[in-house]
Amino acid sequence: MKYENILIEQREAIATVIINRPNKLNALNRDTIQDLHDALQALDVDKKIKAIIITGSGEKAFVAGADIAEFSNFSVKEGGQLARKGQQVLFDFIENLATPVIAAVNGFALGGGLELAMACHFRIASANAKMGLPEVSLGVIPGYGGTQRLPQLIGKGRANEMIMTAGMIDAQKALAYGLVNDVVPQEELLPLCEKIAQKIANNSPVAISYAIKAVNAGFNSTIDGYQEEIKAFGACFGTEDFKEGTTAFLEKRKANFK
Ligand code: COA
């Protein structure tokens, strides 16, 4: 399938989704959000794909935000719809995807770009990356989950400072904050993400999808995360992966998950 605003590269069990609007620093317009949704949905149901990497094209930006030109004259109603639809179609969608998604933050990740990275299951950054939520400098607030996920990831005080100042932090500070898991030179970013994705791909995809569900449940005030973990743990015992994983261990061989 061809998409107008994104490219997809597939290597064995790993798919890399590249947001491809370099002239607009990969800003997320409506069509790009829809393309990302469609592509991620297709990759998620493809049983060959065990891990997904999202990155931006070019050397300058991961994603420099929601496309400001697209919403600059929206009404109150349209603003609310923009946030609601975006959260459903892309940001909550990624967080709850059964396939693990890694953000390879290769440059500016601002506004909706940082929100996209934060919706991914974890983030690795290149040394030139800069991250921030500049929305209040535009007279709005983050609307794609930024006011929720940033405090979850780095704590309320640091998140409030970033949101209120609209400032950017560099990759080293993001690492110190725990916003990204690692920082490497730009040319090493995708190789490192692929290496991590490959490690993930060797494990049980069913167990990983249950783990994603259980971890996410802990951040959902309407669900008891411990109960979700018990349910998911039990469900694992009924899977082929569990049979294969435990049998392989007892037979002193590597598990071969489908
Ligand atoms: N929405 C729409 N277009 C954007 C964009 C965004 N969020 N971010 C960058 N662009 C466009 C610019 O308008 C410019 O387009 P043009 O060449 O047609 O004029 C192009 O991308 C290059 O950006 P430019 O600003 O010239 O690059 P720069 O190196 O001088 O600055 C940034 C880089 C990231 C600091 C600057 O682009 C920026 O502040 N972007 C907006 C960030 C933001 O507020 N995001 C939150 C949105 S809610």
Brief synopsis:
The chain contains 11 helices and 10 strands. It is an alpha/beta fold and 258 residues long.
How far from one another are the termini?
24 Å
Mean pLDDT: 97
**Share of β-strand residues:** 15-25%
Which fold name fills CATH's third level, the topology of the largest domain?
2-enoyl-CoA Hydratase, Chain A, domain 1
Uncertain runs are: none
Helix content: 40-55%
Which secondary-structure class do the elements indicate? Answer: alpha/beta
Number of helices: 11
Instruction: Tell me the major beta sheet.
Output: 6 strands, mixed
What ligand molecules are bound, each kind once? coenzyme A
Molecular shape: globular
| CA-atom Rg in angstroms | 19 Å
CATH architecture of the largest domain: Alpha-Beta Complex
Give a written overview of the molecule.
The protein has 258 residues and is of the alpha/beta class. The chain has two domains: 6-201, 2-enoyl-CoA Hydratase, Chain A, domain 1, CATH 3.90.226; 205-250. Helix content is 49%, strand content 17%. The strands form two sheets. A six-stranded mixed sheet has the order 1-2-3-5-7-10, with helices on both faces. Helix 1 packs parallel to helix 3, helix 4 (112-119) crosses helix 5 and helix 5 crosses helix 6 (156-165). The structure holds coenzyme A.
